[in-house]
Each structure stands twice: as structure tokens, then as C-alpha cells.
TrEMBL record:
Family assignment from sequence similarity: Belongs to the binding-protein-dependent transport system permease family.
Family annotation (Pfam families): BPD_transp_1, BPD_transp_1_N
Keywords: Cell membrane, Membrane, Transmembrane, Transmembrane helix, Transport
Localization per Swiss-Prot or TrEMBL: Cell membrane
Taxonomy of the source species: Bacteria, Bacillati, Actinomycetota, Actinomycetes, Mycobacteriales
SUPFAM superfamilies, sorted: MetI-like
Domain of life where this protein originates: Bacteria
Descriptive protein name: Peptide ABC transporter
Segments forming domain ABC transmembrane type-1: 95-300
PANTHER family: DIPEPTIDE TRANSPORT SYSTEM PERMEASE PROTEIN DPPB-RELATED
One GO CC annotation: plasma membrane
MF-aspect GO terms: dipeptide transmembrane transporter activity
Chief place of localization: membrane
Length: 315
């Protein structure tokens, strides 16, 4: 178990190193000059050259990359071109907001997907099961931002039950916090829940035709008891993989939802940094997302071993 974890951790570190080179290289060749953007169109060439020297943009790409990489190992994401402050505190404060939204959306997705996907599989030969499957297909077809706008129209504009935008931290009180969290979490989680529901249905259908399920039925268990006692754990193995992919998709999808609901998360910070040509902030945000995705994959690998004892014996 320890040896497997060590190997996976080394692979994650190697992937992270490769991702840092790719991210830095791609952002270095993006057209435009941050110094000109900061000074405006009326800036003189000498002023632009002085600012480029001050920001270190006149150094070679390789020198700048290794300087930035060395800072990452010490927790230093660099200094913003716009605010001239360290990027790390701003990224971490916005990351907290995004993590709250993503976790809430993932809970919504699981609450929707597990019962609906299981029911659709269990009643696959009946009309109600087919209707549940059709509903999930409809949910997949709706983009997250459109779902957010529809929720705002219904619950914020028409019914006036919830605020249409903004954010409240947990320290501001449970009421304001939850009221601002509900709509973006639903907009982000319902669409992913519809996708996950399809995979849950497929996994449960596959499990229901296994030999051990028929053996359990022959021993006197009802179909529902057989599914709950013996089928769900095995179905969870394949669904766990999709859940990890869904969680990574939620991190990316949160960028759009945060801008729809004006939430001060990583998505809002990323869009603002791109508009201001603040490449240092963009690099930091992208690397934080990469680290989060790699950490999710590592966690899923370990959860496999906990769920499926066959993997433990093989490893």
C-alpha cells in the first residue's frame, strides 16, 4: 500500500512539473505585452522598456521559468503585474470560495445522480424508469450557464426567494451564506448530476446481470435487497471514476458560474487577470487548478483500494 502510494505520488509530481512547463510556455507566447497594457497606448518606448526590465520580462523564457518554478516550491506564486502584490494570498482567498461552491455542487450532483440513476436502472423496463432516464438526457443538454439564468429568472426575479447574485462568507451567518450558495450550487450541480446519473444507471444495469446477483436472488433475497446489499458497492467502483472526472469538470465549470452569479472565486479572478494581461496571476490560477485535479485523481486511486479488496490483493 505504501509502495503504491509512493509511486503514484512520484507520478503526480512528474505530471505537475510537465504541466508547469506547458502552462508557462503557452502563456509566454500569448500575443501582447503586459507592460504596454499596464502603461496604456500613450506610453513611450523608453517607459515600456523600463517597466519590462522592472517586471523581469526582458529576461529569457528559460530564466523566467526556472525563477517562477523555484518560487512555486517555496509557495511563492510571484508578484502581480497589476497590483504589485504577491499573487498567493489573492489566489488562496478566491480558492476558498470556489472550493465551497464546487463541494456544494458535487453534493447536489450526488444527491441527484445516485437515487435517480439507481431507480432508472431498477425500473429500466417500466415507463417511470424510462422517464427518469429521459429527464437526465434533458439535463445533459442544458448548459450550466443557461441553467443558472433560468434559476435566477424563476427563484430570484419571479418568486424573489433567493438573491440573484453576490456572495456571503460563512462567517456572515448561515442564512445569508446559504441563500447566496443555493442557486449557483444548483446551476453547477444539476447538470453534472444529470451526466452522472447516466453513468450510475449503466453501472447498476451491468451489476444486476452478474452471476453473484443471481446467486443472491436464489438464496431468497428480493431484487431490491440484492441490489442494495451486493450490487451498489460494485457499481460504485466505476461510478467513482466518473465522479472524479465530474469533480474536475466542476472546477472548470465553476469559472462560468462564478461570473454568472458574480461570485468572487477563482473564475472571477481568472477572467479579471486575463483582461488585465496579468499573466502571473493567470499562471498561478491555472497551476492551482492542475494541482487540484491531480490531487483528486490520487485520492480516487486510494479510494479504489478501500472499496475493492481485489485490488489490494493484486497490488
Amino acid at each position: 500500500m505504501l509502495m503504491l502510494f509512493t509511486k503514484r505520488l512520484l507520478l503526480v509530481l512528474a505530471t505537475l512539473l510537465l504541466a508547469s512547463a506547458v502552462v508557462f510556455g503557452l502563456l509566454s507566447v500569448v500575443p501582447g505585452d503586459p507592460a504596454k497594457t499596464m502603461l496604456g497606448v500613450t506610453a513611450t518606448p523608453q517607459a515600456v522598456a523600463d517597466l519590462r526590465h522592472e517586471l523581469g520580462l526582458d529576461r529569457s523564457v528559460t530564466t523566467r521559468y526556472f525563477s517562477w518554478l523555484g518560487g512555486l516550491f517555496h509557495g511563492d506564486f510571484g508578484q502581480s503585474y497589476v497590483t504589485r502584490r504577491s499573487v498567493g494570498p489573492d489566489v488562496m482567498s478566491h480558492l476558498q470560495v470556489s472550493l465551497i461552491l464546487v463541494i456544494a455542487a458535487m453534493l447536489v450532483a450526488l444527491i441527484v445522480a445516485i437515487p435517480s440513476g439507481t431507480y432508472a436502472a431498477y425500473r429500466s423496463r417500466h415507463v417511470d424508469g424510462a422517464l427518469v432516464g429521459l429527464t437526465s438526457q434533458l439535463g445533459i443538454a442544458i448548459p450550466g450557464f443557461l441553467a443558472g439564468l433560468l434559476l435566477v429568472v424563476v427563484f430570484a426575479v419571479k418568486l424573489r426567494w433567493l438573491p440573484a447574485s453576490g456572495w456571503a462568507a460563512p462567517i456572515d451567518g448561515a442564512g445569508p451564506f446559504l441563500s447566496h450558495l443555493v442557486l449557483p450550487a444548483l446551476a453547477l450541480g444539476l447538470v453534472q448530476g444529470a451526466i452522472l446519473s447516466r453513468y450510475m444507471r449503466s453501472a447498476v444495469l451491468d451489476v444486476m446481470h452478474e452471476d453473484y446477483m443471481r446467486t443472491a436472488r436464489a438464496k431468497g433475497l428480493s431484487p431490491l435487497q440484492t441490489l442494495l446489499r451486493h450490487g451498489m458497492r460494485n457499481a460504485a467502483i466505476s461510478v467513482l471514476t466518473i465522479s472524479a472526472i465530474e469533480l474536475a469538470a466542476l472546477l472548470v465549470g465553476a469559472i462560468v458560474i462564478e461570473n454568472v452569479f458574480v461570485i468572487p472565486g477563482l473564475g472571477t479572478l481568472l477572467v479579471r487577470s486575463v483582461e488585465n494581461r496579468d499573466m502571473v496571476s493567470v499562471q498561478a490560477i491555472v497551476m492551482v487548478i492542475v494541482v487540484a485535479v491531480l490531487a483528486i485523481n490520487l485520492l480516487v486511486e486510494l479510494l479504489y483500494l478501500l472499496i475493492d479488496p481485489r485490488l489490494r490483493s493484486e497490488r
